[in-house]
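Quick one:
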Amino acid sequence: AHEAVTGNVSLAKQLCEAWPVALIDEFQDTDALQYGTLDAIYRNDKGGLRGRLVMIGDPKQAIYSFRGGDIDTYRRAAATVTDRLVLDTNYRSDPRLVQGFNKLYDLSGQGLSSCDPHDIRYSEVRWGEAEDRYLAGGKPCLQPLMLHYLSDCPDAAPARKKLALEACANQIAQMLASGSN
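Output:
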């Protein structure tokens, strides 16, 4: 399909005329080939836009390449947009969790990694209605975001991952033993 669309300007134009608007949800899971096909349909042979290609996606999720996403494709597509809308309110998470993430990134910086070469940053998020979404023992969880500091952290990523998994398993075991959920 990609070769047919990108190699035939007339076909790409016909597809745009048949479907002048395309909405691509979860765009962060789009790979370079898929984006190239869409771009050929919604961009004329002079490079101008035709029709309306709406891309909905979260750049912070584009790092998950196992789902087919490609951070460089996402960034390339984002650089071509003419209008950008941002969803800056989280209605699905507990307000305390959203506040915790806002505070964490406020203290540590907006970068997602200390060696992040990309311009994707954390943006402060508002929260929806103050509804308790996370319960522990039937009561609101007052601290849904907990960070555990490892004072003696190894340099190797596999060793850090092993320690993090052990800490998580120990936390779950402690919660189960104490009777809290």
